[in-house]
Amino acid sequence: MPIDDLWYLKRLDPATGKPMRSSRHGRGKRWRVRWEDPETAEVKTLAFERKPDAVREDNKIQADIIRGQYIDPSAGRQTVAEYAEEWRKQRITSTGTEESLERYIRLHVVPVMGGKPMLAVRSGTIKDWIQNRLHHADRPLAPATIHNIYHLVLRPMFEQAITDRVIGRTPCTGITLPKLPKGTYVVPTGDVVMRIVNSMPAEYRAAVLLAAGCGWRTAEVLGLEVDGVDFLRRVVHVRHQLREWQTGLPSLAPPKSATSTRKTELPVIVGEALAWHIQNFVNAEPITLPDRTIPSRPKQRTARLLFLDHRGLPMRRGRWSQIWRAACKKADVPSGVYTMRSLRHFFATTLIYAGKNVKTVQLACGHATPTVTLNTYLGYWPDNEEDSTRSLLDKALAVPTPRAAGKSLV
Predict the structure, then answer these.
(1) Nearest of 96, 89, 103 to residue 157 by alpha carbon
(2) I need a surface site. Which of 82, 194, 318, 320 has the fewest CB within 10 A?
């Protein structure tokens, strides 16, 4: 379509023979570009002050339409906050990932760039976001969290925006993320674990022993039901986990991965602690809570959870953190160094030092793949492997050699 001059009509003035002035003469932008949207057949317009700018934009739009790369300029005016919410709701993810996405967007993406139009986000915007979150005065993020948000939210969201024809190219290019610390952990000793156990309120000591003695995640521990403990076979079953949502009670949700659904052997000390706990602290009457173990069919059901808060309700993450910090303080153990995840590391490294192979540790911990186990604990396998390898080769090569037979090797 031709470029329109909004200040002059196409009719000529009979007296002067020049184009007649329009009612908009001298007001607003003079030059208007018009084109037909190839998808909706709707006529779109953009106005410019200078004719060369209008010509340049018209040429660009027509070329994009011919190449099949047309993007509606108005689509990119949608804010990051608006698009992020649409993108999150369209994602098909596990319960835990969905919760993480919502939290990352709400707490760390929207406050920094939520009001920006999608088209206005540049590579520099992403770099500024990294610095803002890394050095935030009140809530600085660890490098690992920066990596998670970038790879789980920002990069896939802007890539999807290209597919949705909201933007033409992703701003996630030329980005240097902060270096991650080496994969080492502060693993508590058995003495530290027992000091924390004994400093816990009596009704939560079995939870700590379960995490340390069976390698369970916190959400798995808090989601354990009475029928998940098989004292006869001395095993305990991970069938679901307890996840927290923005509103309402925490709910039962699918385990983190397919291999997280598992049964773990029950050490005597953990079995005795669980039996004593059930006898003294578990109510005969079950509680009713949401069950989202089948995400497409959420429901309400009764459950006899082993570990409830002081009101007899499912344990929230914040309340458990308070209990943990108080116990660590009482045990004279730094809560910022040792966490519930530290108990899981204690379990895994105990198996490793006992000579268990990668597959055994993977299945016991419920890791998705052996690769995850290796990436997490590679540095913890015993350091004497070199000597073991040397011994094996010495035995394998224990045959008469030319030197042994009195001959030269050369």
Answers:
(1) 89
(2) 318
Q: Are residues 42 and 92 in the same domain?
A: no
Tell me how many domains the chain contains.
3
Residues 39-57 have pLDDT tens digits of 777 787 878 888 888 888 8
Tokens encoding 210: 């379960």
Crossing angle of the two packed helices 190-199 and 340-353, in degrees rounded to 10: 150
- Give the pLDDT confidence score for residue 180 in this predicted structure: 72
- Evaluate whether residue 355 is within a structural domain: yes
Q: Is residue 129 domain-shared with residue 234, that is, in the same domain?
A: no
Q: How far apart are CA 286 and CA 283, in angstroms?
A: 7
Are the beta carbons of 362 and 369 closer than 8 angstroms?
yes
DSSP state of 13: P
- Which pLDDT belongs to residue 386? 46
Cβ contact 352:377 at 8 Å: yes
- Does 326 share its domain with 204? yes
E strand or H helix at 238: strand 235-238
37, 70, 103 - which closes a domain = 70
Report the greatest alpha carbon distance in the chain.
123
Let me know if residue 117 belongs to a domain.
yes
* CB-based contact 186:339 (threshold 8 Å): no
Counting Cα atoms < 13 Å in the Cβ hemisphere of 253 gives 20
Q: Which domain holds residue 334?
A: 190-380
Residue type, 297: R
